[in-house]
Design brief:
- The complex is a heterotrimer.
- Chain A has 7 helices and 11 strands.
- Chain A is α+β, with helices and mostly antiparallel strands.
- Chain A folds into 2 domains: 30 residues; 189 residues, Alpha-Beta Plaits, CATH 3.30.70.
- In chain A, the strands form 4 sheets. Chain A has a 5-stranded mixed beta sheet with strand order 10-9-8-1-11.
- By secondary structure, chain B is mainly α.
- Chain B has a two-stranded antiparallel ribbon.
- By secondary structure, chain C is of the alpha+beta class.
- Helix content of chain C is 16%, strand content 38%.
- In chain C, the strands form 3 sheets. In chain C, strands 1, 2, 3, 4, 5, 6, 7, 8, 9, 10, 11 and 12 form a 12-stranded mixed beta sheet that branches. Chain C has a 4-stranded antiparallel beta sheet with strand order 16-15-18-19, with no helix packed on it. In chain C, strands 13-14-17 form a 3-stranded antiparallel beta sheet, with no helix packed on it.
- Chains A and C meet through helix 1, helix 2, strand 8 and strand 9 of A and helix 1, strand 16, strand 18 and helix 2 of C.
Chain lengths: 266, 441, 374
C-alpha cells in the first residue's frame, strides 16, 4: 500500500474516530445510568414511611398465624373439602392437604396449608415478582403476572404449591353458595396455593378450613394480637407456645413458617 | 467475464457452499420433518396445556429443563475451547475454531428455546424484561445467557469477516443473493494491515472476555438448583461441577461434529487426526475431573447416611433411577475414559465413539440432577413418578434436529473451517505447500 | 374414571349439607333452669314436671335435663344406649381436656357415677389426683335399651378440677355415651359438644348499677408493655372489692381473653399487654355482676405508635447491585469496543475501496489474486 495513501487515510481519521468514540461514550454512560437507575428502583429501602390509615392512625402490622392441634385431628379431610369449596380448587390439587404420619406411638395426621413462611424460598426465586408478601405479610400470587416457570414449586420445601396443568374447570354456581369471593379466576399455566383466605380475614371471618374442621383442631389469628381462634375457642398464642411443645414443620431449614403444630401425643 | 481463481484450500472449503447434492436434500428434509413433528407436539401442548407432558405437581420440572441445561452445557464447547486455545496460542486449534464457535451459538439458541417451551405462560415472556427480579437465579440466567449469546455471536462473526471477504470476492456469479449477503456482512474487508490490526484487537478482547462470561453462564444455571433447599440440589460444588460437565459435553460435541463435517466435506487434510487426539485428550482430562466431582458429590452426601438424603440417594443407587445412574457412570464416564486412555486418543473412530458415549451420558446426568431430587419425597408421602410423554420426546428430537439443522445451514452458507486462519497456519509452516490456483465455477 | 365422576357430586353434596348445617360444635344451646325450691328428686327416673325443660342433642341423641337452685345443680341424662353416659362441664368449646366430667353407668341394680376430670382425651377420677368426689346424690335406671342417670352436684365445689358455674354465664358441655359397655373406659359410641347457659334466679335480679372504668398506663409504642387498669365502684361510690373482672382484647378473630382478675380493696384490677404491632387496639373489661349489681362493661382504645427506625440506605444489597451493574456494564463496554473495531474495519475498507488496485476484479478481466494476499 502506497505510503501517501496510508498517511492520507490516517490524516482523515481523527475527526471521525473522535466523534465515534464520543458517541459511544455517551451511549455507555447513558446506558449505565439507566441500568443503575433500574437497579436502584428495585431497592426496597428507598421507600417512604409506612402508609397510614385515616386521620393519621398507624396501620396494624399483621402476622397471620395458624396453630393446628394434632391431637384433635382425626384425618377426616373436611378442611380440604371446605377449602376446595371456598376457592373452587381444581381437581388433583389440595391446598390444604392432610398427610398421614407414623411414629413410635402410632399413626397421626398432619394437615398442611401453605406455611406463609416469613423467610419464604418461593418469593426469593420468582423471576417476575408474581409471588410476594401482601401488606398483611401473607405470601400471595398475582395470577396475571405468573409466567408458569414453576421455580417457586421447585423451591417450596412443603409441596404447598400447585400448578394448573390444564384448563381449570368452572365450578358449579349452584353448589357453592359461599363462593362469592375467593378464587373465580383460575388460569391455566400459573401456580396457585392456599392464601390463608385473605378475602375472608379482610372481612373479619376465619378461613374456610378453620370453620370447616368439626373437631376445632385449626386455630387462626394474628400473632401480633396474640389471639388465635378456631371459632368458639380463643387461645393465647404466646402462652401456648411457652407451655406446650409446639413445633413447626422443617424448622431446621430456616423458612420461618407461620403454622405451629401441637404434638399428637403429649 | 474473468474467471475467479482460488487456491486448492479455498476450493475445498467453499465446495459445500456451491454443491447441493442429494445427500444434503434428503438429510435436510429429514431434519425438517422431525422439527415439524416437534412443532406439532408443541402446538398440542399450547392447546391443551402442560398436562400433555408427564410433569405433575411433585415433579414439576422434567425433560425440558434437563435438555435446557444440557444444551447450555454444550454451548461451552466452542467459545471456551476456541477462546482458551486462542489465548494460549495453541496453533492446532485453527481448523476447528469456527465449528466450535458455531456450536456454541446454536446450542445457546436451542437451549433458550427449551426454557420457553417449558413455560406455562409463554405469552407472558416479556414479564421477565418488564418485571424481572434481580434476586432470582432465573434472572441471573437470563442476563448471563443474553450476554453469552451476544458475545458468542460476536466471537463467531469476528473471525468470519476475512472469510466473508473471500466469499464476497470468489463465490460464483450465479450465487447472487449469497454474494449480496457476504458483501453486506464482510464489513468492507480488504485485508489491509490496519484492518487486520482492528480485527486482531477485537478478537483478542473477545477471546479473553468470553471465558469468564461462559463460566458465569453455567455457574448461574447450576445455581437455579443450588440456591434451593431441596435434597440433592443444595450442594456447594454445583457451580464448578456444572461448568466441568459443560466443557466435557462441549468438547464431546465438537469431536462429533468435527468427525461428521470431516467425513461429509472430505476435509481429511484440514481436520487431522492430531485434532481428534488433542481434543480427545482434553476430553479425557475433563472426564477425570468430572468423575472426581461426581465422586465428591455422592460420597459426601452418602457417607454419614443422613436421613435427609436417604430417600434421594436410594432412588439413584437402587431405585427406579438406578439403571440410568449406573449406566451413566459406567457408560458415560468410565467407558469413554477407558477408551481414550487405552487408545490414547490416537484412533479417530474410537475417539468419536467415546465422545458419543460421553454426550449421551451427560444428557442423562442432567436428567438425573433434575428429576430424582423432585421425585424424592419432601413431606411424609410416597416417591413420585415421572415419565416423559410423546410430546416431550418429540420436542427433544426436534431440539436435536434443530441444532443439527442450524449447523447444516451454517455449513452451507459459511466455510466450516476458517480459510484465512488455516492459510496463515499453512504458510507459516516450514514446508510450504505451493498455493496452486484452480478455477472454480 | 366413571366411579370418580360419581363421587364428586356426591362429595360436594355431602360437604354442602355439612357446610350449610352448622358444624357439630355449634349445635344448639341447653339451659340450666333456675328452680327454687328444687322439684327434681334424684331417683333415676325422670317424671314430667321434675325439670323445667330439656334439651335433646341431635348428634348423640342424649336428652339433658338441667336445673339449679343457686347452690346445687340437679342433672338428668337419658342416653339411647345401655352403656355408660357422661357429661362434662367447662368453658365454651370444651371437649374433654380441662372439663369437669361426671360419668356413670347402670349395671343391673348397681349404679356407678364418678366425679372425674379430663386431661387430653382421657379422664381420671378426682380422687386419684388429690381431689374429692363431690357428687351429693346419684341414681340411675336402665329400661327399654335406654339409660337414665340423675345426680346432684354443687355449682361451686371449691375443687380446682370442678368448673365453677355462675348464674347468667355461658359454658360448654361435652356429652357422650356408650351403647353397650358398662364401664368407664370403653371408647364412646357418640359424643358431641353442647353449649350451656345457666339461668339466673328471676326473682333475684340485681338492680343496682356499678361504675366500671378502664384506663391504661404505660408505653403506647410498638413493643411496649401497657397495663390495663379497671376500677369498679358501687352505686354509692365505694369500691367493690373481690369482684372478678374479665379483660378482653377485641382481636380480629373475636374477643380474646386477657385474664380474669379479682378487684382489690380499692376496686382495682389490672392486666398487662404487650403491643407487637403499631395501630389501634380496642380493649374491654366486663363485670358479670353479682346478686346485687347488674353486669357492666367498659371499653378502651389505645393507639400504639410505630417503633420507628428507617432501613438504612447504604446496605449490602445496594453495594451488591452496584458491583453487579458495574461488571455487566464493563462487559457491555467491551462488547461495544469490539463492535467499534468492526465499524473501524468497515470505514477503512470504504476508504481503501476508493483507491485503485484493490478489490475483486479489474475491468478487462485480468485475474488478480484478490482477497487473501499476504
Amino acid at each position: 500500500m502506497p505510503e501517501s495513501e496510508s498517511t492520507e487515510v490516517a490524516a482523515q481519521s481523527p475527526v471521525g474516530a473522535e466523534g465515534r468514540r464520543r458517541f459511544l461514550k455517551l451511549i455507555a454512560i447513558g446506558g449505565g445510568t439507566a441500568l443503575a437507575g433500574y437497579y436502584l428502583a428495585q431497592f426496597p429501602g428507598v421507600v417512604p414511611a409506612p402508609p397510614e390509615g385515616l386521620e393519621g392512625v398507624p396501620q396494624r402490622t399483621r402476622r397471620w398465624t395458624m396453630l393446628i392441634d394434632l391431637r384433635r385431628c382425626d384425618g377426616c379431610g373436611l378442611c380440604t373439602d371446605a377449602c376446595r369449596l371456598e376457592h373452587n380448587v381444581a381437581d388433583g390439587q389440595e391446598w390444604m392437604k392432610v398427610y398421614t404420619r407414623t411414629d413410635n406411638d402410632g399413626e397421626f395426621f398432619l394437615p398442611r396449608p401453605c406455611m406463609h413462611c416469613e423467610n419464604a424460598p418461593c418469593i426469593k426465586v420468582c423471576p417476575v415478582n408474581a409471588t410476594f408478601y401482601n401488606e398483611d405479610g401473607l405470601v400471595v400470587i398475582d395470577e396475571q403476572r405468573c409466567i408458569g416457570c414453576r421455580y417457586c414449586m421447585a423451591a417450596c420445601p412443603y409441596d404447598a404449591r400447585y400448578f394448573n396443568w390444564s384448563e381449570p374447570v368452572e365450578g358449579d354456581e349452584i353448589l357453592s353458595p359461599t363462593r362469592e369471593r375467593g378464587h373465580e379466576d383460575h388460569q391455566r399455566g400459573v401456580v396457585e396455593k392456599c392464601m390463608f383466605c385473605a378475602h375472608r380475614t379482610d372481612e373479619g371471618r376465619l378461613p374456610a378450613c378453620v370453620v370447616g374442621c368439626p373437631m376445632g383442631a385449626i386455630y387462626f389469628g394474628d400473632a401480633n394480637e396474640d389471639f388465635l381462634s378456631n371459632g368458639p375457642e380463643k387461645i393465647r398464642l404466646s402462652a401456648v407456645l411457652a407451655s406446650q411443645e409446639a413445633f413447626r414443620w422443617k424448622e431446621e431449614l430456616g423458612t420461618e413458617p407461620r403454622v405451629y403444630y401441637l404434638p399428637a401425643r403429649r | 467475464m474473468g474467471k475467479i481463481l482460488v487456491t486448492r484450500l479455498e476450493k475445498r472449503l467453499m465446495l459445500p457452499l456451491v454443491r447441493f447434492g442429494p445427500r444434503f436434500w434428503i438429510f435436510t428434509a429429514a431434519l425438517l420433518a422431525v422439527i415439524a413433528w416437534g412443532a406439532y407436539a408443541y402446538s398440542v401442548q399450547l392447546r391443551e396445556g402442560l398436562a400433555v407432558t408427564g410433569m405433575r405437581d411433585r415433579v414439576s420440572w422434567g425433560l425440558y429443563v434437563s435438555t435446557f441445561v444440557f444444551f447450555i452445557g454444550i454451548s461451552h464447547a466452542g467459545t471456551l475451547v476456541s477462546a482458551i486455545l486462542r489465548v494460549t496460542h495453541a496453533e492446532w486449534r485453527k481448523p476447528i475454531t469456527r465449528l466450535a464457535e458455531a456450536i456454541t451459538a446454536f446450542a445457546l439458541i436451542v437451549g433458550a428455546t427449551m426454557v420457553i417451551i417449558d413455560l406455562g405462560r409463554p405469552d407472558r415472556l416479556q414479564h421477565v424484561l418488564l418485571y424481572g427480579r434481580i434476586e432470582s437465579p432465573i434472572l441471573w440466567d437470563f442476563i448471563s445467557i443474553s450476554f453469552y449469546l451476544a458475545g458468542s455471536l460476536l466471537y463467531l462473526y469476528l473471525p468470519l469477516i476475512p472469510d466473508l471477504g473471500t466469499l464476497r470476492d470468489k463465490m460464483p456469479r450465479r450465487a447472487r443473493i449469497r454474494r449480496w449477503l457476504y458483501s453486506r456482512l464482510a464489513a468492507r474487508w480488504g485485508d489491509t494491515p490496519e484492518q487486520r490490526a482492528h480485527l486482531d484487537r477485537a478478537i483478542a478482547v473477545m477471546a479473553v472476555l468470553i471465558i469468564p462470561v461462559a463460566v458465569s453462564v453455567h455457574t448461574v444455571v447450576s445455581w437455579i438448583f443450588g440456591m434451593t433447599l431441596r435434597v440433592g440440589w443444595q450442594s456447594t460444588i454445583f457451580g464448578p461441577y456444572f461448568v466441568v460437565g459443560a466443557i466435557f459435553s462441549g468438547i464431546a460435541t465438537i469431536i462429533i461434529v468435527m468427525a461428521a463435517v470431516r467425513w461429509l466435506f472430505h476435509l481429511e487434510k484440514q481436520i487431522l487426526p492430531v485434532h481428534f487426539r488433542n481434543l480427545g485428550l482434553m476430553l479425557l482430562a475433563l472426564d477425570i475431573a468430572l468423575m472426581y466431582f461426581t465422586l465428591s458429590e455422592y460420597l459426601t452426601a452418602s457417607y454419614m447416611g443422613a436421613s435427609r438424603d436417604a430417600s434421594w440417594l436410594s432412588l439413584l443407587a437402587s431405585g427406579p433411577y438406578a439403571p440410568m445412574f449406573w449406566g451413566m457412570v459406567f457408560g458415560g464416564f468410565l467407558a469413554p475414559a477407558l477408551i481414550l486412555g487405552i487408545t490414547r486418543a490416537r484412533m479417530v473412530r474410537w475417539t468419536v465413539i467415546a465422545a458419543v458415549l460421553a454426550n449421551v451420558g451427560m444428557w442423562f446426568e442432567r436428567y438425573l440432577i433434575v428429576v430424582p431430587s423432585m421425585a424424592a419425597p419432601q413431606m411424609p408421602t410416597e416417591v413420585a413418578t415421572y415419565w416423559p410423554t410423546w410430546v416431550e420426546w418429540s420436542i427433544l428430537a426436534a431440539a436435536v434436529a434443530g441444532f443439527t439443522l442450524l449447523l447444516v445451514i451454517f455449513s452451507k452458507l459459511f466455510p466450516v473451517v476458517s480459510i484465512w486462519e488455516v492459510q496463515e497456519h499453512v504458510s507459516a509452516l516450514p514446508k510450504t505447500v505451493p498455493a496452486t490456483q484452480e478455477a472454480i465455477e | 374414571m366413571t366411579p370418580r365422576r360419581w363421587a364428586i357430586p356426591v362429595l360436594i353434596a355431602v360437604v354442602v349439607v355439612a357446610w350449610i348445617s352448622p358444624p357439630a360444635k355449634a349445635q344448639g344451646s341447653a339451659t340450666m333452669y333456675f328452680r327454687s325450691p328444687v322439684a327434681a328428686v334424684v331417683d333415676g327416673q325422670i317424671a314430667p314436671g321434675e325439670y323445667s325443660g330439656s334439651f335433646l342433642d341431635p348428634t348423640t341423641g342424649i336428652e339433658l335435663f338441667l336445673v339449679h337452685d343457686g347452690r346445687n345443680m340437679t342433672v338428668g341424662l337419658v342416653s339411647p344406649g345401655t352403656g355408660w353416659v357422661a357429661v362434662g362441664f367447662g368453658p365454651p368449646g370444651v371437649l374433654m381436656d380441662g372439663a369437669n366430667i361426671l360419668i356413670g353407668y347402670v349395671s343391673g341394680p348397681t349404679t356407678v357415677l364418678s366425679d372425674e376430670f379430663g386431661v387430653g382425651f382421657e379422664h381420671f377420677a378426682d380422687t386419684t389426683a388429690g381431689g374429692t368426689d363431690n357428687l351429693l346424690e346419684r341414681a340411675g335406671t336402665e329400661a327399654g335399651g335406654r339409660t337414665t342417670l340423675e345426680f346432684r352436684f354443687p355449682l361451686d365445689t371449691g375443687d380446682v378440677r370442678d368448673v365453677r358455674l355462675l348464674e347468667g354465664q355461658d359454658y360448654g358441655m361435652i356429652v357422650a355415651y356408650q351403647s353397650t359397655a358398662d364401664d368407664l373406659v370403653t371408647l364412646h359410641t357418640s359424643a358431641a359438644p353442647v353449649s350451656l347457659t345457666v339461668e339466673r334466679d328471676p326473682n333475684a335480679l340485681p338492680t343496682r348499677v356499678a361504675t366500671l372504668r378502664l384506663g391504661s398506663s404505660g408505653g403506647e409504642v410498638e413493643g411496649d408493655n401497657v397495663a390495663l387498669v379497671a376500677t369498679l365502684l358501687g352505686d354509692d361510690g365505694a369500691p367493690l372489692s373481690a369482684s372478678p373482672l374479665s379483660f378482653y382484647l377485641n382481636s380480629s378473630v373475636g374477643p380474646g381473653p386477657l385474664g380474669t382478675v379479682e378487684t382489690d380493696v380499692y376496686g382495682v384490677a389490672a392486666v398487662n399487654y404487650t403491643f407487637r404491632s403499631p395501630g389501634e387496639f380496642t380493649f374491654f373489661v366486663r363485670f358479670t355482676g353479682d346478686s346485687d349489681y347488674l353486669p357492666a362493661r367498659a371499653n378502651l382504645t389505645v393507639v400504639a405508635q410505630p417503633a420507628g427506625g428507617q432501613a438504612s440506605f447504604f446496605t449490602t444489597d445496594l453495594a451488591i447491585r452496584f458491583v453487579v451493574g458495574a461488571v455487566l456494564g464493563g462487559v457491555a463496554l467491551a462488547y461495544g469496543y469490539s463492535i467499534l473495531q468492526i465499524l473501524q474495519i468497515r470505514r477503512l475498507g470504504s476508504r481503501a475501496k476508493r483507491a485503485p488496485g484493490r478489490g475483486d476484479r479489474t475491468e478487462d478481466g485480468t485475474p488478480t489474486r484478490g482477497g487473501m494476499s499476504k
